[in-house]
Amino acid sequence: MTDGITRRRLLTAAALGGTALTAGGWAVIGGSLTPSQPGLLLRSQAPLPRPYAVPLPVPSVLAATRSSGTTDVYEITQKTARLRILPGLETTAWTYGGTFPGPTLVSRSGRRTVVRHRNELPHPTVVHLHGGHTPYGSDGYPTALILPRGGTASHTDGTAGMPGMAGTAGSRDATAVERTYTYPMDQRAATLWYHDHRMGFTGPNVWHGLAGFHLVHDDEEKALSLPDGERDIPLMIADRAFAADGAFRYPALDAAQHTPGVTDPYMDGVLGDVLLVNGAPWPVLETQRLRYRLRLLNASNARRYRLALDPPPPGGGGLVQIGGDGGLLERPLAHDALDVAPAERFDVIVDFSRYRPGTRVRLVNRLGSGSTAKVMRFDVSTARPPADDSRIPDRLTAIPAPQPERAAATRTFHFQRHSGSTGWTINGRPYEPGRPLATVRLGISEVWRFVTDFHHPVHLHLNHFQVTARNGRSPGPYDAGWKDTVDLRPAESLEIVTRFTDYPGRFMLHCHNLEHEDMAMMADFITE
Ligand code: C2O
Ligand code: CU
Ligand code: CU
Questions:
Q1: Residues, Cβ < 5 Å to ion ligand 2
Q2: Is 214 in the pocket of ligand 1 (CB under 6 A)?
C-alpha cells in the first residue's frame, strides 16, 4: 500500500514538474524498475532458459477455408494449448488455433477477409485487428464478446443494454460461441496484428497467448522488389514471466476474470524477465548474407525496447526502416537503434551481406538489463549467397503532407493516473463503454494532442494518422509515416493529424499498455 501511495505522489510531482520524473526517483520505487520502463518486473520462478539455444519459429500462414472472386474466408478456434516454451516444462496458453503466436493471416489489399472465430476457451474473448481499417461491427469493441461454449454473459461483461451493440450478428446471443469478423481490407500494405480486446481482461488474455500477425500486401509494395518469401519475417517480441511449473505468471487481481486489473504494485505495467520472439525464448535465426525484411512488433503488455544490432554493421545504420504501423514510409530511414513501444510496428531491412561470413549478430535491447537486454541472434552464414535480387528503393511511396493548420478542430487528451484512487484515465475519466470523449465527422481532419504523466503508448482505431509535433518541436525519429500507436514518455505532449474515413460508428482511443488499458485508460469516439 505505501508503495502505491509513494508512486502516486511521484506521478503527481511528475505531472507538475514537467520532466521531473528522474531516473533516481523510479529506481528507488521499483527496485528493478529503470527510468525508461513503464512497469514492475515480475520474475520467473522457473529457471531461465539458456539464450540462443532454439531456432526462431515463424508462425505458419493460415490457409483460407473458402475463397471467392472477392473474399477469403478463414476459421480460427480459440483454445487452450500446452506449449513447449521452456525446456522440460509445459506452458498452458490461450491460443488462436493452438499456437502462440497464432497463425499469420495474409490478405491482399482490396480483397475482403472474413474470419470466423470460435471460442473454446473457458472465458469470453473479443478479437481486434490492430491497424485494420474496419467497420464498427467487426472492430472488436471491448464488450462485443465471443462467449465460451456453454457460458453466459455475467452482468460485468456489460453487453446488456449497450447502445449500438447489434453491429454483428450474434452479439446479443448469450450462447454464441462464434463470431464472424469482416475486414474489407480497403487499406495499404502493412503489418497488422490481431489480439484479444476483452473489456478489462486484454492484459491477461494477450499475456497468455492471444496475439497473431495479419499482413496486408498490395501491388505498390510488390513492385518495389523488397526481400520477400523466406526473407520477409515477422518478429513478435514479447516479455513474459513463468511459474516454477512452466505456467505463465501474471499478477491478476482475479484469475477467474470477474474483477479486472492487476495487484497494486503492477499497476504501472507488468514486465517479464524472459523475452520471447515468435513465442521462443531468445531464439536464433540462421541468415544468408543477403537482405532480410524484418517486421518488428512489440506485443508486450508494457515493456518498451530500444532495439539495436550488436555488433552494428560497419558504417552503422543497420536497421533500415521502410515502414511503420500503417505501411511504407516515403523514404527508407536508417537507424542505429529503434525505440519500440507496445503495439508499434517497425518494418526494417537488415542487409547481412554487410557482415563478415560467420558473424553472430545479436538483436539487443538497450533499455533492458540482464536477461531482458538480449532479444535474439542472427547467425550469418559462411556460405556464398546467391545474388541478391532485392533492393531498397530511395523512394518507397507517396505520403501526403499533413496540414495541421487546416484542421477543423483541435482536441486535447490527457493520459494520467486517476487521482485519489486506483486506475488510469483519459481527461480525468475512467473508461465507460458508450460514453464518447469525441464525436468527429468522417473525412474531416483534426489535430489531436496527447499529454502524459507517465509512459503511455497511445493507440487509435479505424485510421492511421501522422505525427506533426512532439513536445512543441518536430516529430521524433520513430514517428515517421502512417502510425496507429505512438510512444509517449512521461510528461510529453504529441500532436497528430487525424482523418477518419468510411465507417460511422463507435471506435476506441486508448493506452496500449495493457495494464493501463484494463484499468480504464480507454475512451470511445464516434464517427458520423
Ligand atoms: Cu491493439 Cu485497441 O488495440
Ligand atoms: Cu487497434
Ligand atoms: Cu498508459
A1: 130, 461
A2: no
